[in-house]
Amino acid sequence: MYSVRKEFAEDAEGTLSRLKEIGFEAVQLDGMRGNDPIQVARLLEKYQLRVAGMHIKHDRFFNDLDGIIEEAYLFGCKTIYDKYIDDEEQNEQGYRKTKEVLLAAAQKLSPLGFRVGLHNPEYDYNNVVDGRKVMDYITDPVNGLCIYPEPDTYWMTVAGENPVEAIKKYSGRAPILHLKDYRSGYDVNDMDNNLMEVGSGEIDMKSVVEWGEANAVEYYCVEQDYSRIGIFESLKRGFDYLVSLEEEL
């Protein structure tokens, strides 16, 4: 739903209707964008869209865990991700505190069937704590508790990773993969040109999905932060590409 954040803010029902028309059976929530949560829940039921996962603002894991739980039950979804670590906490102290808070949330919520995870931008692969890349440091299990990684193929690529290889370390503990495609030859910050529709860029998406099918991935999140051709058309092209892989896989 981050991809259609503007559209969702302006017309929640129209947005969900369009996603259903494309063929989506589930969505990943990314905040209410000014909409009433109860009304959103009703619209999701109306259009028979499951909630695959929920992106939660970083600070809410620190000060609003009860509110997160309430939303999770409202939307019937117990897979919740820290959307990204806030800029002011992009330092060693912030990373350590983030791991501590997310593990505390997991310890409280895991017995209730929740999965607590972290979505990665590129700096979670560039920065290091205790000799471990931040994404790996935070998702390394501690005393049997696991923070679930939500790998993002685009940001992995921007960080210099090969997503086909980088995701292999997450076997069995990455229920959702974020799929965004990439085209080289532009500045890494030039998303207008280097961000492509899923299946039309240089990332080997077929191999990514092939790995996912063999390693307990439950949902593939088609994401398009920006679009040159209209966001719904971009999402449709990505969706259709993934469906086209079914016969090959």
List the helices and strands and how they pair.
Layout: H1 5-10, H2 12-22, E1 26-29, H3 37-46, E2 50-56, H4 60-63, H5 65-74, E3 79-82, H6 92-109, E4 115-119, H7 123-126, E5 128-129, E6 132-133, H8 134-139, E7 148-150, H9 153-158, H10 163-166, E8 176-179, E9 181-182, H11 191-194, E10 195-196, H12 205-214, E11 219-222, H13 231-248
Parallel strand pairs: 1-2, 2-3, 3-4, 4-7, 8-11
Antiparallel strand pairs: 5-6, 9-10
Domain Xylose isomerase-like TIM barrel: 18-209
Keywords: Isomerase
Pfam families: AP_endonuc_2
Overview of this protein structure:
Keywords: Isomerase. InterPro entries: IolE/XylAMocC-like, Xyl_isomerase-like_sf, Xyl_isomerase-like_TIM-brl. This is Sugar phosphate isomerase/epimerase family protein. The protein starts with a helix and ends with a helix. It has helices spanning 5-10, 12-22, 37-46, 60-63, 65-74, 92-109, 123-126, 134-139, 153-158, 163-166, 191-194, 205-214, 231-248, and strands at residues 26-29, 50-56, 79-82, 115-119, 128-129, 132-133, 148-150, 176-179, 181-182, 195-196, 219-222. The model has no long low-confidence stretch (mean pLDDT 95). The longest helix has 18 residues, at 92-109. Helix 6 links the parallel strand 3 and strand 4. It is globular. With 249 residues, the protein is an alpha/beta fold. The chain has a 5-stranded parallel beta sheet. Strands 5-6 form a two-stranded antiparallel ribbon. The protein is built from 13 helices and 11 strands. It has a domain at 151-249: Divalent-metal-dependent TIM barrel enzymes (TIM Barrel, Alpha-Beta Barrel), CATH 3.20.20.
